[in-house]
Here is the input.
Amino acid sequence: MLDRKYILIDQHESYCTGKIIGRVNEDHYYLVAFDIHYEKDPTPLRPQEAVAVEEIAGSLCEECGSRRWKIFDTASDRQAWIDWMEKPSPESKKVLDLVSTKRH
Here is the structure.
């Protein structure tokens, strides 16, 4: 079911991406190949890791309660999510405009 899906693990201030390679141990674990970790001070990723289904399905953000693991059918679907996530919101632009006008 999750074989060959693309993943993004969202941690608000950082995230990492990868791909689920296949099942391990009768569907209780999946082998995940990580590729990129986006963070101000990136920490090294393990190239591959066996991850429990419970971690993938049930890992929630402690701050907001959203699911940390996002699952995508294609790499382009995942990239569209990343592009949307990194796009500045209109509210942040208003704050920037306010700050820049107050400095003059």
